[in-house]
Amino acid sequence: MLQQVVRTYSYNVEKCKTYMGEAYSILLGQYDDVMTQQLATYDEWPAVEDRCDPIDLLKLLQRICYDFKQEQFPVMAELNALQKLFRMKQGKDESLTDMLEIFADLVEVADSCVAITIGIGVRDYVANREKNLKYSKCTSSVQKELDPIIASLAKATLFLMLAGVP
Hints:
With 166 residues, this protein is mainly alpha-helical. 73% of the residues lie in helices and 0% in strands. The radius of gyration is 21 Å and the shape is extended.
């Protein structure tokens, strides 16, 4: 029975590699030489190309599309992304659904620039509420467990503040 499980696992791993390679080829085939040249300017490109990793390829394409280039001053890119996010307000005739779409796009841009930072106060609040500890006193596995909760709380609170909902 164990041999069958190992065989099935090995088969699935090989299929996954095949599908990932096919997805990578399809994605790369959608772009012209100019985009490929832009991809080649990133330090991560040789590793992405070597692994034929479609997820990392999408991340690089996202950075290009968001104009977060290596030659750009990274501090300015991060601050610009945060500034656009924090200055956002719900329009007079804008529904919360429409605002949420715009908000999600701005958060995605800020995340791609690694601009979303969450203060220790929020981290401690969630750690205390969930585990009765300070965040810094939690083990790394507990911190990894808390990080999505912390990020969700921070983003939801920011959205409500920008929407004008108390």
